[in-house]
Amino acid sequence: MMLIVLPxxxxxxxxxxQENPKxxxxxxxxxxxxxxxxxxxxxxxxxxxxFLELARDGYFNGTSFHSMVARAVVQGGDPETKNAxxxxxxxxxxxxxxxxxEVSDLPLKRGTIAAFTVPGVETAGSQFFICVGDQFQMNxxxxxxxxxADGMDVVEKISTTPTDDxxxxxxxxxxxxxxxxxxxxxxxxxxxxxxxxxxDELKNFQLAIxxxxxxxxxxxxxxxxxxxxxxxxxxxxxxxxxxxxxxxxAPGFVIQVGDLNTRxxxxxxxxxxxxxxxxxxxxxxRHEAGIVSMARGSEIDSALTSFFxxxxxxxxLNGTYTVFGRVVEGMDVVRKIETVPVQGETPVTRVDVTxxxxxxx
Length: 361
Description:
2 domains
């Protein structure tokens, strides 16, 4: 008897039914990228159990995200979407799987995943929607059962898929597979780039500003503004300034870059974590042609990402804005940018910008 019972016990201990959903995650591999989901089993145990069951059975593989509103919501989980030629049926499948509502006080904030149903009716099944932006107006109407733990930038990208007048996707974003796995242990903490370098080590780096009109090289001044130098080099090294543009041209005064609102695509969640206000480091460097200084709002410690290159002596800026660099190559490119047509101080034609932290030759 012992030879029979022990293997059975071992099987039961390893059965998915015995796993704690809090220890699990579902990894969505899609044609737009990968994102990871974790669960709220205390608030919606039956919905979590059904989702895990369906995912393990491969139910979602080959489906597509069929409806979305840009940067608001994304809807998926309909088995009808496996047929690329049946768009007229999209949104009609996967209902009525015997799930009763498990509405909790979880807010429908960015990243929350909820079962899609007709409000007030017990129709829940495989369909779900992901909140790309906060949807607090729908709190208490849908069962929230999971959240996006990683890859929210991918979900946001999916939300910008072109749609028709019924908000149905006109391009296919397919779920290749959904893998259920244990949540791996967190990786050891890694210091953000340009955190540990000494002042002398920071002097070995320059800021390379690539524009559609040519390259500009900025020598950094860490002995004058060490935290600003770290901040700008860090943002450049993680790609924050990629796909931005020159956003201000004031001839004879400054050209200005680094506004992340000019990016063609939003920042990833990870990179966005580096966008923080930085305290002023006012110094004795005068604002003359080629000097690079940090822009800010009315508060002296409100600088974020935007900075300017001075086009001529500006004594009124001295001691008021933080100088952190000077142009050592490409001042001719700066002058080209100074001459672009503007409306007010906004370039009429986009001047594209990317930036990199580079070692001196």
